[in-house]
Amino acid sequence: MNCLAFAACLGTWASLRADSCTTPVALEAKAHTNPSAEVDAEIGAWFEQQGQSGCAIQSYRAALKADPRSERALDGLARSLIAAGDSATAIELLQAGPRDERLTLDLASAYEKAGAPEKASDILVRALRANPDSAPMTSAEVVLLANNGHPEDAYRLAERFAQLHPHDMDAQKLHLRVLVATNQATAATLARKLLALAPRDGELLYLNGVVEQKAGEFFEARGHLEQAIAVHPNFAEPRYSLGLVLARLQDPAGAKKQLEKAIELGATEPEARLELSKALRALGETQPADEQLKLYQQAMKASADREMAANLSAQAAQALSGSEPMKAVTLYREAVEAAPQDASLEYQLALALDGTGDTAGERVALEQAVNINPNLALAQHQLGYLLFRSGQYDVAEEHYRQAVRADPGFTQAWISLAATLATKSKFLEAKEAVAHALRLEPHNAEALEMQKQLATTQAIH
User: Fold this and answer.
1) What gap in Å lies between CA 134 and CA 174, rounded to an integer?
2) Contact 396, 420 (CB under 8 A)
3) Which is nearest to 22 in space by CA: 1, 50, 2?
4) In whole angstroms, what is the distance from residue 418 CA to residue 428 CA?
5) Which structural domain, as residue segments, surrounds residue 408?
6) 126 within domain boundaries
7) Do the Cβ atoms of 51 and 266 come closer than 8 Å?
8) DSSP letters along 16-57, please?
9) Mind listing the pLDDT tens digit for each residue in 397-419?
10) Is this prediction's pTM over 0.70?
11) What is the CA angle 299-304-306, rounded to 5?
12) I want to staple 114 with a disulfide (CB 3.0 to 4.6 A). Which of 84, 87, 125, 133 is the partner?
């Protein structure tokens, strides 16, 4: 039996040690002189911009502890969890909280990253019915359709939105992005038209460059891409495209420079490393070229493995919701085989095994999950629960303590810790744990009942 209460979970992923999260001096001083949820969220945003998801998660979690209703912190924590590959925790976090436009987009993104594009689309479609003029949500639905084998539907949605909002630049840019992505012949005309209206718009400069690159107009593409980089020097995409263009213009040194910078800035296309390998080889740098080729091959395999694991996980989740736990177990095992270092998959496998009554298998999966990621609070809590049921109170206590260390806002873990401590006659510590739970959720019925029982027990003793 699964005993978890997910509503209190505010995130579980934190693979970096706290002392590795170095904050800029100005932000550190701000945090000391004016500690608040807003400052913690600001620090989280800084870490997020640096690509330090683990540190961002810690900061956003601190912000939510100070202000559980902070939508900025909730949005940041969800994005950081998704960036860290922990979409499952992001989904549970967002399902339990409020839902404005940003958080709706986060939830859709989390479902897509978790391999459930249909659920992501359902969320966006429902939100668009309530707010059909939303450019961000329309854009998200267009991208979702395009990324999941429905380019014609994406094209029609973007075209209709642009027609309904002829003077809205965001709507027109969305339409252009789809035209470029689907190689429509009309992309060039619209790209030039919009650039004439906004000649310093970095995205329009970039899109014009891409259109020209695809048409073989490499000199024109180079000019627009260089201008796009001047406007947005820290965007990977225009540098990647410029690298491709310079390679076609027989400038391997220039291509190398732009491709290396694109990768440094986070270019996700494995092809970036392949193109860099070609440029290095053209410059006679054989060993670095071989290294980049190897990284490209590894990235392609990792991408294929992740996609397979996500698809299998989505099928498993569907089987589990359809009351087919044995089928879910088989699918989750296959997903784990494809992505053996994914702690969240081991945890999901454990939940499926729980549904079949295989307690021994569930325990093995949970132990594997916490070995991979000791800060996966949900897995630590469920493992503690299994151990508590088998009478191993000391070990259960340790896992509950690890759960609350990993996620101090996990109310149910504090309650479980209190129950374990009371069983061990550690009544004072149990009272402290249940008091912590009540500070998080003052009206939690289970915690209130435990507080009452502890008071009675202490009076007897």
Assistant:
1) 12
2) yes
3) 50
4) 10
5) 375-461
6) no
7) yes
8) S-GGG-PPPHHHHHHHHHS--HHHHHHHHHHHHHTT-HHHHH
9) 999 998 888 777 788 999 999 99
10) no
11) 90
12) 87
